[in-house]
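Changelog excerpt

This revision adds worked examples to the README so contributors can see how folded entries look when concatenated. The first example is reproduced verbatim below.
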Amino acid sequence: MPLVLRTQVALPANYRPQDMLALHARDALQASEKVEGLRVSKGLTWQGLPALLQLEVVEGAAQAVASLAVDGQPPASAGPPDLQAMVARMLGLGDGADQLELQHAKHPVLGPLLRGQAGLRVPASSSPFEALVWAITGQQISVAAAIALRRRLIATAAVQHSSGMLCHPDATALAALTPEQLRAAGFSVSKIATLERVCAAVLDGSLPLDTWAAEPLQPERAEAIEEALLAIKGIGPWTVHYALLRGYGWLDGSLHGDVAVRNALARLLDVPSVSQREAEQWLGAFAPWRALVAAHLWASLSAKSY
């Protein structure tokens, strides 16, 4: 019988559940994530064990409730506080959204976008490892192609919860896949090599992604994580800043290299195109919320690109 952990998290009055729901509804086949109303059911790996997260925003109650059914017995040290911290990250909680709007709501260009998308927050993946794998998977391909590739990766890893829901693999399960299996799933040789390096670094302790997530991320720690990730061949600035955003809720990465961000910015500025350098300079004016501004730009195009 699965061990079931439960928690609840208070939500701000202006919370937008659609941001979190859209992230988990990207894959229409819903083999590892399912959205029904205001509830997300998601397969994940918890302390090396298959687990099913059910996360629901309670309409009108300004709170979210969550349960995690784990197949097996995780370490005693992993309990409701860890679940609550994970859920808070996944909901995108924090004061960055409100601070950005308070400071820049009257900006002549960004202000109307902020007011039109008031309360937008950036939902995170269930773990930094999942976020990093997603960032590597999405390198230089469309969102639709990345979603399909991620789906095949999860199916190939075949980590399954007793409910039948497939779970995103952890580093141990992903490292067990052969290059031939990953090639059959559609991964390029370069992405396979990058994933192998990441898994090896996580498993030997030189890339302690979960340890870094145990405390609120400060600029110095974010810089240290960035340095560690950039030292891995196959990982560049876009991958790092996207992983920091989706894995840790770090809102000050610069996503100027993102094509969708530049396209949205060009539309916002009413110009034919925006270069990476121009995007970097424009986003720089909104530090320490550059990644949150990028999320607003994504959302102005489509919930799926966001």
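The second example, added in the same revision:
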Amino acid sequence: MNDRINELLYRNLQEVFGEGDAQRRRAAIKELYTDDCVVYTPAAKIVGHDALDKFSGELRATHPHFVYTPLGDAQPLHNAGRLNWGSGPRGEAADYTGVDIIIVRDGKIEALYVFLDTEPS
């Protein structure tokens, strides 16, 4: 289970929130998230694949040249895990940072909690 939690954390960061291609992002959401997933962010509570796809696509469009970089290793714990990350232009210091915490059910993300350490500029 630890390997799957690590995979979900890293792939979510890159393939959902870091993905600019709508079709690839949508396929990743379907593969990585339960149908009834819930994502909690400072800005909103997002429920289901369609809402997550819309939210992550709109967020990506605000900073299309930014990349998400893991800061340290993912930490799995039973059916949960966390990953600290930074986001900013490739090769530069992070413009903002945060931590993702996931709850996993049946090998997929059931809930994602996104905490921001610093606000995006």
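Reviewer comment on example two: Helices lie at 2-17, 22-32, 48-62. The beta strands are 33-40, 45-47, 66-70, 75-77, 80-89, 96-105, 108-116.
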